[in-house]
Amino acid sequence: MTTSGLKRFTPGVDKRVHLLLSAVLWTAVGMWLLVRGGLWLRSADALWLIIPALLLGSAKSLLILDRTAEKGIQRILRFNGTACVGAVYSIRTWLLVMAMMAMGYLLRHSGIPKPVLGALYVTIGWALVLSSRHAWRLRRQFNR
After folding, report:
1. Suppose 125 and one of 21, 24, 33, 46 were both cysteines; which one would form an S-S bond, judging by CB atoms 3.0 to 4.6 Å apart?
2. Which residues does 105 contact at the CB level (< 8 Å), separation at least 6?
């Protein structure tokens, strides 16, 4: 079977779907990390760590993740017609996602105290949720 023959089995979607998927993924993963981290902080009676974690997460979003989100959005905007649903992220980004998942697994099983791990999860989760605003904003513009 040729490459063009395989293309008909590829789930192709347009830019609007890619933007929605990007926004949903960043938001869902961020919310999951926020909740998990918050529960660890609560169980350790360390809810006060949420404030510094949110401040650090805001800085991470504004200084690092906003640029990453914008690059991903610009990549999506360059798509012509439909593209595979998995193309919402580049191969390099998908590899980075897998590496971050592996790192999360290692951290959870490392013996790091739950308050520290909870604060880290809240920091990263909030940064993802905050930076997802770029894809949500552009998605809304596409719907007008």
Report:
1. 33
2. none
